[in-house]
Amino acid sequence: MREEAWIRDFNATITVCDREGMILDMNNKACRVFEKNGGSKLIGTNVLDCHPEPAMKKLKQMMEARVENCYTTEKNGVKKLVFQTPWFIDEEYMGFIELQIEIPLNMPHFQR
Description:
19% of the residues lie in helices and 37% in strands. By secondary structure, the chain is of the alpha+beta class. A hairpin with a 2-residue loop joins strand 3 and strand 4 (78-89).
């Protein structure tokens, strides 16, 4: 998979899957965050196998419907924004990307 050099060390997790959920690539942060689950060894496995029910069912439905999902989560005092979105090349559906970005517990919000 072709990538831009900055993606590898970007300070948020990036996990890229194909149409069936096979993990094609993970950046360094994703490999570290998911180290307990295998880290870079997850490349070539199915992302659906990494999720328990009901999250697995929801992710499968999102992939089939090609819809985005965005939420925040907090674990061990770390709050994250999770953004899951389909990706395309020349309007052809290629699969799903998940970004996890650590955010402050009390992040300011501005109406503009």
